[in-house]
Write a structure and sequence with these properties.
The structure is a homodimer of 100-residue chains. By secondary structure, chain A is α+β, with helices and mostly antiparallel strands. Chain A has one domain: Alpha-Beta Plaits. The first copy, chain A, is built from three helices and six strands; from the N terminus they run E-H-E-E-E-H-H-E-E. A four-stranded antiparallel sheet of chain A has the order 2-4-1-5. In chain A, helix 1 runs antiparallel to helix 3. At the A-B interface, strand 1, helix 1, strand 2, strand 3 and strand 5 of A face strand 1, helix 1, strand 2, strand 3 and strand 5 of B. Strand 2 of chain A pairs antiparallel with strand 6 of chain B.
């Protein structure tokens, strides 16, 4: 499985961010072609500059992720994401290896 | 399930970091009390300052994570982690919510 991680840092207005992310962005992510799992976490910071929200999108493999990244649905999700007032957004992708 | 995420950024010497992390740190993490799953990812950066290595440690619940955080095994893992030459380490924890 191949994972795309999107981390949102320090929203200007957390309550407004949450409301619009859940009502507008979540449906756009759910509509991505080939998406097999989608999780959200609002973690507690323990050390360093922790993200406010972590979105994780799972695909069958790197090809399925590439297809999703190039899709009109991803363009729509990206266009929406660009309207959120956050300090920064970090994105990365790759395989996740079981160690236990 | 409750997840502890540890992100390592920009190791001074990636090959040396990998070698010692896998041979020394991985066994220390596997020995943590209550750990139920442990994954590693070396993601491809797509946007912003992406981590070099992402370690994810899963526990039954917040109490199990707290117990692990206060354990001598975690003290040993933390002591080892402090010796790695990286630009920064970010840690956060919390529930992961299924959205799909």
């Amino acid at each position: 499985m191949h994972r795309l991680t999107v981390q949102y840092f320090s929203p200007a207005d957390p309550a407004a961010f949450d409301e619009r992310y859940e009502s507008v962005h979540v449906p756009l992510v759910r509509a991505l072609p080939g998406i097999e799992s989608f999780t959200l976490a609002r973690p507690r910071p323990l050390r360093g500059d922790a993200p406010y929200l972590v979105a994780e999108l799972w695909f069958e493999d790197a090809d399925a992720l590439q297809t999703a990244l190039g899709s009109p649905e991803m363009a729509a999700a990206g266009k929406d994401a660009a309207t959120y007032e956050v300090a920064s957004v970090v994105m990365f992708s790759g395989e996740v290896r079981e160690m236990l």
